[in-house]
Amino acid sequence: MVAQSVDKTLDCKGLSCPMPIVRTKKAIEEIQPGQVLEVLATDPGSVADVKSWANRTGHQLIGTTQEGDVFKHYIRKADPNEQKPEAKHPHVVSNEELLQKLEKEPVILDVREPMEYAFGHIPGAKSVPLGQLEETLRELQHLTNQEVYVVCRSGHRSDAACQILTRKGFSNVKNVVPGMSGWSGPLEKITK
Questions:
Q1: Phi, psi of 125 (to 5 degrees)
Q2: Residue 149 CB-half CA count within 13 A
Q3: Under 8 Å CB-to-CB from 88, ≥6 apart: which residues?
């Protein structure tokens, strides 16, 4: 691999969503356009999170490598005219609103990593990690006109997933906020 010139390194090891992105946003503001930020993270979800964030903001994700359990994300800061304000998905529901709908067996997509899903998810939720969402779209096409609730740990990955689904023609997608970090309803676990 070609050595990457790095202008700033950000250590997010041990942090989980949304903290790697929160800190990346701050760190990218501290460097000049064209400079490269290296983000070190141990959260597997950071792979999809960083890619999605870079796409939504106009910054260039040069690439991601992995050494052991550390993911190294390389992001080039965009010129001001290439940057985009980070948009949020406009349709949001609270955990409480989703909890009231559970009896009707709503369509719930859980976009967290498989291990997060295994340790506790909303009953009936389908696991579709954010990093695999685009390649799973064909399997989800039958849901295009249905009400779909998207959940993650904190509402950030699910926001990105809602935006992807909406762009791909899903007409009734809702982001569940604050997500599993504040979920007080029933949980299912996968035990082996």
A1: -70, 140
A2: 25
A3: 159
Q: Identify whether the C-beta of residue 111 lies closer than 8 Å to the C-beta of residue 133.
A: yes
Instruction: Enumerate domains of the chain plus CATH numbers.
Output: 8-76 (3.30.110.40), 92-182 (3.40.250.10)
Burial class (CB in 10 A: 0-12, 13-18, 19+), 153: buried
pLDDT per position as a tens digit, 65-116: 999 999 999 999 999 888 888 888 999 999 999 999 999 999 999 999 999 9
Is 17 designated active site? yes
Among residues 12, 17, 152, 162, the one annotated as catalytic is: 17
Quick check: helix, strand or coil at residue 45? coil
Give the DSSP letter of residue 81: T
pTM of the model: 0.75
Q: Locate 186 and state its tokens.
A: 């029933």
Q: What is the number of alpha carbons within 13 Å of residue 24 lying toward its C-beta?
A: 33
- If one counts every other C-beta atom within 10 angstroms of the C-beta of residue 3, the result is 5
Tokens of 176: 């569940």
What length is written for the chain? Answer: 192
CB count within 10 Å of CB 170 equals 20
